[in-house]
Amino acid sequence: MLTAIEFMLAPFVVCLLLIGINIYFGIHVIKREIIFIDIALAQIAALGGTIAGILHDLLPSSAEHAHNEHTIWWYLFAIGFTTAAALLFSLLKSRRLSLPLESLIGIAYAVAATGAVVILDKAAGGELHVHDMVAGSILWVNWHQITVLFFVFALIGLFHFKFRKKFFALTDAYNDENTYYHFWWDFLFYATFGIAVVFSVQVGGILTIFAFLIIPASTSALFSNKWSTRILFGWGLGTIVTVCGLYLSWAMDVPSSPTVILFLGVFLLLAILVRRLGILEFLVDGGKNI
Amino acid sequence: MIENIIFLAAPITACILLAGILGYFGNHILSRGIIFIDIALAQIAALGSMIGLLLGYADGSAAVSYLSLLFTVLVISVFSLTKFEKQVIPQEAIIGIIYGIGLGIAMLLAEKIPGGSNYISKTITGNILWVTWENVFHCIFIFVPIALIHFLLRRHFINISASKNNLPYSLNKVRLFELIFYISFAIVVVYAVPIGGIFLVFVLLIAPTAIATLFTQKWSHRFFWSWMIGIIGSFAGIYLSYEIDISNGPAIVCLLGILVFMFALAKIFVQKMKRS
Question: How far apart, in Å, do the first and last CA atoms of chain A sit?
Answer without folding.
Answer: 41
